[in-house]
Amino acid sequence: MLNMGGPASPAETGAFLERLFTDREIIQLGPLQSTLGPLLARRRTPRVQKQYESIGGSPIRRWTEAQGAGMVRLLDELSPLTAPHKFYIAFRYAAPLTEEALSAMRADGVERAVAFSQYPQFSCTTSGSSLNHLWRELKRLQLSDAFRWSVIDRWPTHPTFVAAVAHKVEQALLELDAAQRERAVILFSAHSLPMRVVARGDAYPQEVAASVAAVMARLRERGFARNAYLLGWQSQVGPLPWLTPQTGEALAGLGRQGHRHVVVVPIAFTTDHIETLFEIDQEYKHVADKAGITHFRRAAALNDEPLMLRALAEIAAQHLAAREPASPQYRLNCAGCVNAMCRSITNPAAPYQRLRDQAQSETP
Ligand code: GF9
Ligand code: FES
Q1: In angstroms, rounded to a whole number, what is the distance separating the alpha carbons of residues 191 and 236?
Q2: In the chain, which stretches have pLDDT less than 70?
Q3: 334 lines ligand 2 (CB under 6 A)
Q4: Which of 124, 125, 243, 270 should be mutated for ligand 1, with most atoms under 8 A from CB?
Q5: Nearest CA to ligand 1 atom 14
Q6: Would you give the DSSP letter of residue 46?
Q7: pLDDT tens string 219-262
């Protein structure tokens, strides 16, 4: 189970940020990255550490463990031929790191492994970075032949995931008086991307939009057919241009236009983390108050939601039954990709070739 992870205790914030700022696949600082990265990380640590203190540390590991346990329990039933299943967590920037997961898998005698991205929508800065790091670590630890791999790289519109999110939106709408409910605007919020990543051809914006459309369709099916909705992008840092509208600005605009009821829906993370517990619940709540939004709600994160545990098990079971190395999209590099690592699969469990390799081998 691949994800970015977070500092479980505020004291781990410095190490977490240092790993983030030295990851060339999420932040490009040029040839100075290995000196500039730690410097920028150190400069940001006090402020970010305070944020983690205010939420009592990142809950992402705890929730991922609950999701993993729920997933494998159901998966053993859904896919008895591939049972028993076991889950390992590999975070990109916090414990347990990839190396720890691989060592545990090795010690357990695992032979067949599925790299399961816990990001519903694929971005080369998140899912791509986790996967590339996995292939790098396998090589570094001389484990390239130890496991046969396949990849669950994205699942932005999986019906049970969509149903799980829609269920959380429904619960938030039901907190409002029946008379006000259909006036509520649904503001989906996803982590933003630097515009240079968007321009490279990253799949994330369109996959987030696909998730939003699917959740709205599911809500209509469930009888919530009258709510307007929009999509904002959160968590921008630094001076470079990012994908907008910014979630806070969207909220301010809604307030100015006279909207009083807003439900914010985190759509790109599957557990609580600093972007829900601090940014939405504290910072955006404050923006909403100032903007005159009197009824501000957030749809709960999926965390240990039973529908979400079922979604993870179904996604894994369907992947195993399909006997494909990855989704068809995984074979395709971004138009502007210059990273030779992208879209690899080390020792794939089924035949696998990138579209870029294929095109190159066929060019006269
Ligand atoms: C991201 C999800 C989607 C460089 C700033 C000059 C930074 C970044 C991203 C994308 C996280 C979760 C996307 C930076 C700094 N990021 N790209 N983050 N992050 N580039 O923090 Cl679901
Ligand atoms: Fe997207 Fe390499 S950056 S495939």
Answers
A1: 8
A2: none
A3: yes
A4: 125
A5: 27
A6: H
A7: 999 999 999 999 999 999 989 999 999 999 999 999 999 999 99
